Amino acid sequence: MDALVTVPRGNPLIRKLRHGVDLDAGDQAILADLFRPDRTAEPQQDIVRAGDPAVGVHLVVEGVAFRYKLVDDGRRQILGLLLPGDFCDLQSVVLGPSDHYIAALTACTIADVPQDRIDALVFRDSRLARALWWATLVDESILREWLANMGQRTADRRLAHLFCELLLRQQIVGAAGSHECPMPMTQPMLADILGITTIHVSRILRDLRTEGLIRLQDRRLHVPEVERLRAFCDFDPAYLHLIRRPEGEARP
Amino acid sequence: MDALVTVPRGNPLIRKLRHGVDLDAGDQAILADLFRPDRTAEPQQDIVRAGDPAVGVHLVVEGVAFRYKLVDDGRRQILGLLLPGDFCDLQSVVLGPSDHYIAALTACTIADVPQDRIDALVFRDSRLARALWWATLVDESILREWLANMGQRTADRRLAHLFCELLLRQQIVGAAGSHECPMPMTQPMLADILGITTIHVSRILRDLRTEGLIRLQDRRLHVPEVERLRAFCDFDPAYLHLIRRPEGEARP
DNA sequence: CGTCACATTGATGTCTGTCAAGAATCGTGG
DNA sequence: CCACGATTCTTGACAGACATCAATGTGACG
Predict the structure, then answer these.
(1) What confidence tens digit (pLDDT) does each residue in B128-153 have?
(2) CB of residue A192 closer than 7 A to nucleic acid strand C?
(3) Phi, then psi, of A57 in degrees rounded to 5
(4) Which residues from A are below 8 Å from B150, CB to CB?
(5) Terminal C-alpha separation, chain B
(6) Which CATH superfamily is domain B12-240 in?
């Protein structure tokens, strides 16, 4: 394929954004420049803390991170998963200090993007502005789906739905095969995502396993029959807004 | 106070956005111009349907509307409440056709804003772009809080939390007093917001009532002791991002 | 005045939480 | 290399939250 592209083909940020908007070589160069690791974060280490002054924006380069809130007596709700190419706190540019936490789930490498840098993209460059808008709007869309998931599905289908999303989102950024992907969450974490207890997660996983819907091995999720899992939880990927765009072409 | 302001003081869109960004008279005039009723919608009537081509953006001028998704066998999850001054589908500018529905809850008047009009604001005028960003980011923040609410709280606290938000958000746009506000939702709707059954809503309302935490009368919610209700559900309004900005001052 | 949606209450069942106890896994240090 | 503690994972028994089924009452509206 097109050998003139100077930007790494595998850059997850670019791969992701190209699902939403067209990016020319210049755009891609700017994004590739943002996507440079500045530091690392160990599992469970906070990357953004609620209330911290917003000094800039953080971008997941490698690894998986997650948003969470603490409620009442210390119960934790995980609000989203951040994969490579996802912005942690783009909203802080406008909203100021975050109202929730972000922590590393696996060991992560993080890019720190200064405020003014983002500001320039968002409020001056209209094509990249559109790309960043697109990314936050997809995040919001995912959040809506999670809410519907939480409100209307039983715990087993909720977990199946999460697994479907996990598989697909990692495929988008090139981190998964067609039938399997990394699944770095422990059962206590799955519990905090789904709003149930660890014990119940364990029971549900057993059931999904004995049904032959999934297999977990070495922190990887295997889905022998993707269509069966999809049907089980009524997964519809529309909310991820992936207008399929063939890998090769970027219309400048 | 300042008598030179030509834009209606009570314009909910402007009132809301001024919590997030400074708007000069010119900005306010542009927003006031957007905020013109083009049509009405009866209760339960869809304003935006999932999959409809995005022809423009809709803005609630009067009344209350709500987002929802249909899951599986027809179960409905309500994903958000839209009050006067809220955009229904700002995201469609970037994302294209919506992935969920929006319908009127009470009789609404709606402003239809053409695509190119929004496009001009979002991608060319940086101060109003910031204002619209702010609005969608607050929407996203509310969504996160709803998710945490759903995942971690029992149904009675969930409902109390919803009532706290309803009271405060309506105060922001000038639609509520200090201890009471409109509460147009029926019990089946509350059920679809909270992810529980109508029957359970009825029982919880009875309990909150006998506890003296709330009173419902004529589709209005009365909260005799706001602090007690707030403490009951651990409501923290930070997620609404209301940096208090005194009514009188707009720094141009 | 009948209809229909909304609201209320009781009896019963299912999903999920809590409590309790082991077993398996993993990183760490001796 | 093995021992150790600390998580994680698993299973069982029981309890609580919420759903389902059923019946009745209420109010708006044609």
Answers:
(1) 888 998 999 999 999 999 999 999 99
(2) no
(3) -120, 145
(4) 147, 150-151, 195
(5) 17
(6) Jelly Rolls (2.60.120.10)
Task: Give the pLDDT confidence of B75-104 residue by residue, as tens digits.
Answer: 899 999 999 999 999 998 888 899 999 999
8 Å CB contact of B99 and A238: yes
Average pLDDT of the segment spanning B48-67: 92
Footprint of strand D, using CB within 7 A? A 186-188, 198-199, 202-203, 205-206; B 154-156, 195-197, 199-200
Q: Are B229 and B159 in contact (CB under 8 A)?
A: no
Q: Stretch B165-170: mean pLDDT, rounded?
A: 94
Are the beta carbons of B71 and A126 separated by less than 8 Å? no
CA distance B208 to B39: 38
Angle between helices A198-210 and A155-172 (to 10 degrees): 80
Average pLDDT, chain A: 88
Nucleotides of D under 7 A from a protein CB: 7-13, 17-22
DSSP secondary structure of B183-237: ----HHHHHHHHTS-HHHHHHHHHHHHHTTS-EEETTEEE-S-HHHHHHHHT--G
Cβ atoms within 10 Å, residue A48: 21
> For residue A5, is pLDDT > 80?
no
Smallest Cα–Cα separation from A105: which of A22, A189, A27, A179? A189
Tell me the C-alpha distance between A69 and A80, whole Å. Answer: 10
A245 CB less than 7 Å from any atom of strand C: no
Among A68, A82, A99, A189, most B C-beta atoms within 10 A, so best to mutate, is A99
Res A245 pLDDT > 70: no
Per-residue 3-state assignment (H helix, E strand, C coil) for chain A: CCCCCCCCCCCHHHHHHCCCCCCCHHHHHHHHHHCCCCEEECCCCEEECCCCCCCEEEEEEECCEEEEEEECCCEEEEEEEECCCCECCCCHHHHCCCCCEEEECCCEEEEEEEHHHHHHHHHHCHHHHHHHHHHHHHHHHHHHHHHHHHHHCCHHHHHHHHHHHHHHHHHHCCCCCCCEEECCCCHHHHHHHHCCCHHHHHHHHHHHHHCCCCEEECCEEECCCHHHHHHHHCCCHHHHCCCCCCCCCCCC
Whole-number Å distance between alpha carbons of B164 and B185: 14
Q: Which residues of A touch B194 (CB under 8 A)?
A: 151
Q: How many Å apart are CA A16 and CA A136, to the nearest integer?
A: 12
The pLDDT of B49-66, averaged and rounded, is: 92
Query: Percentage of chain A with pLDDT > 90?
Result: 68
